[in-house]
Amino acid sequence: MNQLIIDGVTKQFGALKVLQSCDLTVERGSVVTLLGPSGCGKTTLLRSIAGFVTPDAGRIRVKGQDISRLPPNRRDVGYVFQNYALFPHLTCRDNIAYGLVVRRVPKAEIARRVSQALDLIALAAFADRYPKQLSGGQQQRVAIARALVLEPQVLLLDEPFNALDAQLRLSMQVELRKLIDRVGITSIFVTHDQQEAMALSDRVAIMRGGRIEQIGSPLEIYDRPRSCFVADFIGRANLMPTQVRAGRTEGPQAIAAALPDGPATLVARPENIDLTPGSGPGWPGKVTFLTALGPVIEYEVDCGFSVPVRAALPRHAGVETFEPGALVTARIRDEAAAVVLPGEPNHA
Question: Which pLDDT value is given to residue 348?
């Protein structure tokens, strides 16, 4: 069952088209991440769902009800802000209870639901502390509990990890996903961090210029991008210009392509590129740079394209390490994992 349906949502500020006919369906209990570069419209779309922005066109439905013109307090939607927005003069317990108090929920019911929320986020022992007495991760959990205690149909999270350091950010990603799974709440998450999106999401919606360019599972987006933008934006990718002739790419390694004859882009992830010393079948080149990344060494190889070919090779016994200046041949290891897209790559 679809919990949230966004149908043709459009928003313009003056001459700037921030959202352009956005369509998205979110199943009950799933996590969907809006991912894209700054200014692509992801936060505006999130705020449109919350009611903080009114779309110029289109509809937003939650459990079949059109909420497009309802005020935020009548949308049954929870919102977790970037900076948590906790009240500094209220304790952890009172911050969580605030929305229930505003809604005039009976005191006994408030006490029960707040107690449950504190247990859920494992902060019952910190109930009487003020925000300044909590760590960044604890403050974030209080902000999430404040939204969840209202029992919304949809939970919206606007880059909630921005204020956390790298190590805490990683642990909180795991904690948040476990919390969402325990509660079973439908969630929309906004981030510009690709790893975050891949770790948290059931599906990822890639946004560009106010449009949703592709929607799919994290691995589907990574393995089968539908445009050069998506391929280049998600992870690291080699985008090599080629020509399609009679259903295959031209060049030293012909790859099957279900495209008409003409210019195309061959997409191969660095982990799908093998390097062999000297000349051989593939793209000849020279190693120009290498980065040791613990278990993997990533090489940059000048193969005559406008940008170097990247190859990520695992470090283990028997695998040769190539130094800058070494002459090598690059070859795609698994042709089935390569993607051929129409048009030429844009490396601008």
Answer: 46
pLDDT tens for each residue of 313-326: 988 766 678 999 99
> The domain spanning residue 244 has which CATH number?
2.40.50.140
* The token pair that represents 160 in the structure block: 């909630």
Residue 230 lies in a domain: no
- Domain match, 266 and 157 both: no
Residue 40: half-sphere exposure toward Cβ, Cα within 13 Å: 19
Which has the closest alpha carbon to 78: 91, 94, 96? Answer: 96
Question: Residue 170: which residues within 8 A CB-CB, separation 6 or more?
Answer: none
Q: Which two tokens stand for residue 79?
A: 């919102």
Question: What is residue 346's predicted lDDT score, i.e. its pLDDT?
Answer: 74
Compute CA 197 distance to the chain's CA centroid, rounded to the nearest angstrom: 3
What is the Cα–Cα distance from 93 to 113, expressed in whole angstroms?
Answer: 11
* Pair 33, 153 in one domain: yes
**pLDDT over 90 (residue 21):** yes
**Contact (CB, 8 A) for 176 and 193:** no
Across the range 296-319, mean pLDDT stands at: 90
Contact 194, 234 (CB under 8 A): yes
Decide which of 164, 189, 223 is a domain's last residue.
Answer: 223
First-to-final CA distance of the chain: 41
Torsion angles phi and psi, residue 225, rounded to 5: -65, 145
| Structural domain that includes position 116 | 2-223
Instruction: Please tell me the distance from the alpha carbon of residue 297 to that of residue 300, in angstroms, as a whole number.
Output: 10
Structural contact between residues 79 and 147, judged by C-beta atoms closer than 8 angstroms? yes
The arithmetic mean of pLDDT across residues 288-311, rounded, is 94
CATH for 79? 3.40.50.300
Residue 228 falls inside a structural domain: no
Q: Domain tally for the chain?
A: 2
